[in-house]
């Protein structure tokens, strides 16, 4: 059913058709549409100012349509974080067989810098997770998965002699993860610094830092 809402436009009032109740069409596609709207709202207004009403307005639905899929803001945010991490998982699955840390960094930078809303949203939600145990649990679980993959790739590199082995693979994984997160947190603030050329140099620098150290004790 369509509900007419009147909104103030620059040239006067305009009627906008807003869909009421369950959004028509494929449920998964509609969930994705609502998560995209939530991403935009949080990226532009912050977590504290986000609401189901604003997400509904951004997607062109009523609030009731949003609550058909997500009972409350907390449930919507959990689904949003999971969907963001699912993109990481797909990336890792795609490159894990290559066992090359360079490939992981390159794909990661491409993923996070190609979407200007990706890290503003993730940093907002990461800050909120300090006060939300359920959200914190999701971050811990999904980050543990990434560190496990980083560690396995680095350990394989140590066996091949392409990664320094005077520092354990799990410590290197923690260090690289923190470095990558730091880049991502700065990107929304200084996008002009993260040109494709600089991104390539950052990857090269990270690889150089984990390269075998001549004369190091094993």
From TrEMBL:
Residues 28-88 form the HTH tetR-type domain. It holds the Pfam family TetR_N. The keyword Nucleotidyltransferase does not apply. It comes from the Bacteria. GO terms for molecular function: DNA-binding transcription factor activity; transcription cis-regulatory region binding. Residues 51-70 bind DNA. Keywords: DNA-binding, Repressor, Transcription, Transcription regulation. Residues 1-28 are annotated as: Disordered. PANTHER family: HTH-TYPE TRANSCRIPTIONAL REGULATOR PKSA (PTHR30055:SF226), HTH-TYPE TRANSCRIPTIONAL REGULATOR RUTR (PTHR30055). This is DNA-binding transcriptional regulator, AcrR family.
């Amino acid at each position: 059913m369509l509900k007419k809402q009147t909104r103030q436009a620059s040239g006067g009032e305009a009627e906008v058709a807003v869909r009421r109740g369950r959004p028509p069409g494929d449920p998964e596609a509609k969930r994705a549409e609502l998560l995209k709207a939530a991403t935009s709202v949080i990226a532009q207004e912050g977590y504290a100012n986000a609401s189901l009403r604003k997400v509904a307005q951004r997607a062109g639905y009523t609030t009731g349509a949003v609550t058909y899929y997500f009972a409350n803001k907390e449930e919507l945010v959990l689904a949003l974080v999971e969907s963001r991490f699912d993109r990481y998982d797909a990336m890792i699955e795609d490159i894990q067989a290559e066992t090359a840390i360079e490939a992981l960094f390159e794909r990661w930078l491409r993923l996070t810098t190609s979407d200007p809303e990706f890290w503003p949203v993730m940093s907002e939600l990461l800050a909120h997770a300090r006060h939300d145990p359920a959200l914190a649990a999701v971050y811990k679980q999904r980050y543990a998965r990434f560190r496990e993959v980083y560690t396995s790739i680095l350990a394989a590199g140590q066996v091949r002699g392409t990664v320094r082995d005077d520092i354990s693979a799990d410590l290197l994984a923690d260090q690289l993860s923190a470095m990558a997160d730091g880049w991502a947190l700065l990107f929304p603030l200084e996008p002009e610094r993260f040109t494709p050329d600089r991104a390539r140099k950052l990857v090269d620098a990270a690889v150089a830092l984990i390269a075998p150290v001549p004369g190091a004790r094993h």
